[in-house]
Each structure stands twice: as C-alpha cells, then as structure tokens.
C-alpha cells in the first residue's frame, strides 16, 4: 500500500473576472441561447479580438502546483492574500474542479473551508451532524457515539435542534470544526476560518488539531497565524502568485514568508498586511525604534523600545484603545500592553495620527518574537495586524553567565540582590 495520502501534479486553475460560478437561472439560460449565434459571429468576425478580451479577463489562481503529502503528515500551507491557498483546498475537497493537472486523494476527507460550507441551512444542527457523518461513510451508530462530544466541543447544546440558517457565523464555525475534527476523517483540511471564533475557541481548535495530528492522521492547515503553523506543522508550503516558491520545514517557510512581507529595518508598511477580511486597514505603518529613536529591527536587552503606529482614517474615532502583544514564535503570549490601563476612557484618533508606545528597559530574553497590534473602539474591533517580527539581542555588557537564564524564562524583571541580615558568628 502506498504511503502517499495526497498527490498533486501540475495543478492549474483559471478564473475569469466577472464570472459567476453556480447554477444559471432560466432567464440567464434563455439569454445565452438567444445571443449564442451573435457571440460566435463576433468571435469569427473579429479574429483575435475576443481572445484578447478573454485573456485580459483571465486570473490564474494556481499555476503548475505539484507536491505530495504522506499519510500522517501535517502540512501547513501559507502565503499572502491571493496566493491560491483557498483555491487549492477547494480543489482537494472536490468543491472546485481544476483547469489542468490532477489531484489524487486517498482516504476519507473532512474539510472546513468557509463559514457554512458542508451545512444545509434548512436542516438543524443535529441533522447536519448526521448528514456529514453519512457523507464520510460512517454508520448511524458511529455518529451517535461521537455526537455528544461534537455538541459539547461546539458549545451549541441549546441550539442543536435549530436550523443552521439561524446560527451566527461563530456558531456555524464552531459546529463545523467540531464535526470535521471528531468524525474521524483520514485527511483533515482546515482553512483560515478560526479567525471567526473567540480566543478560547481558537485555543481549543489548535489543541484538537494537535491531537488529530498526533493520532497519525493527515492534516492540511491553511492559516495566517504563523505561530500556529510552526507549532502544528513539520512541513510548510509557501505559495506566492499561484506557484509553490518553497516546500520544506515549516519554520523555514514561515521565515521566508515573513522576510518577504516584513523587512527587518524596523519600518513596516501595513497598508496591505494580512488582516481579518471584515476589518479595514487603519494602521498604515508601524515603526520600531531604539532608545535614540533610530529605526531598527534588532533591539538590545535592557534598552528602551519605541513602537510608533501611523494611522489613516477619514474621520475622528473616539474612545479608541490599543492593545500590543509580544508572542514567541510558537504563539505563547509573553507580555501585553493596553492603553486601557493608562487611558480608561480611550484615546482620540484623528486623521493622520501617530501614536507612540515606549517600553522602558526592554527585559525580554534575547531571541525572535512576533508583535501583534489590536485597535478597538467601544468594544468594536477596528483593525488587527500580527506577525510583525521583533528581535531582541544581548546587551554588550551582559556576560555569558546570564544567558543560562534565557533558556528558563522569557521575561527577566529588573531586580536587586542585597544582604538583608546575617547571623553573627558564634
């Protein structure tokens, strides 16, 4: 028996701008029938003109993608927006047909791609659980044994007999993930839908995916959360412009992706940075500066760190709050600074505002970190950017003896040792 779970060979996918995917209405079909002879005449009469128009409307989402995934392998697929990640997963989940090439899938597939995918909106949550299990080839008894775990994980006990169309997007995602992860698929395909859930749900999802991975099942994971990719995946594929630009260890793929999107000079243009789709860019630029206000990507232990945020808005925003977090490469939160502590009533953001956060005597253990910034107003999220690289280096005066402590702790507070008292010698 082959140890290959997924084989992708020279996969391509072409879309046309303005193309509507789906079932045509009777009126649209009738219009096509009536105008078909004229379209043929125009094409023949104009020579290459129609071909030129079609070429201008072409969008190649995938261009010759090839790779293999072994049984039990956990693969992270990353890349900027528009790289072709979601299109690839839709082809592997048999939702979309490729334009060229082929993909072989060996095993039962459970997938979670978009909010509501795989659910019939008119059916209840209970009915959809059984429907998805039946599609995976499971018996009613098998589904029944796992049903309580699915409902408990999703936290929808009160609504399980309510039609799914009445669920919020968060409830749909929670139930869809619980179904995909608990119904024992041999191949689990997860797209970046976890952003819809809250922090606690995301943590449980990542824990469940880790459990699935350890059980020997194959996992394909698309995410903009680089820390989660590094923590879960041994291997990573970096897509850019519909092509595979790197296939190797997950940490190498992540570093290549971050290097391409965030140069290390300490100044970052975040206008087109990856952020949840429901948020509009508010943070235009971010600058990391040293104690002398010079931009740099490397900061010394014990020195001041300045974080400057340049914001772009067309109208004044009142009662705004900033939340800055520093995390390890594995996603462990080290420290958080919130403007709520110093300005409980919030700050006023005017057009072309620049805010500066000064961290006095940075006490992070030397190493690589990631910076995340959240902006909100009156409980409503306005913008969020993540994965901004921050490097902390040894201070010149720190000796080798201090580095032993770096392996034991991430934050080293400033302290002073002194002799408080001593017993007199007898």
UniProtKB/TrEMBL annotation:
Name the keywords, alphabetized.
Answer: ATP-binding, Nucleotide-binding, Transport
Which GO-annotated molecular functions does the record name?
Answer: ABC-type transporter activity; ATP binding; ATP hydrolysis activity
Show the GO cellular component annotation of the record.
membrane
Q: Which domain of life is it from?
A: Bacteria
**What PANTHER family does the record point to?**
TEICHOIC ACIDS EXPORT ATP-BINDING PROTEIN TAGH (PTHR46743)
Name this polypeptide is given: Teichoic acid export ATP-binding protein TagH
Ranges for domain ABC transporter come to 47-266
By sequence similarity, the record places it as follows: Belongs to the ABC transporter superfamily.
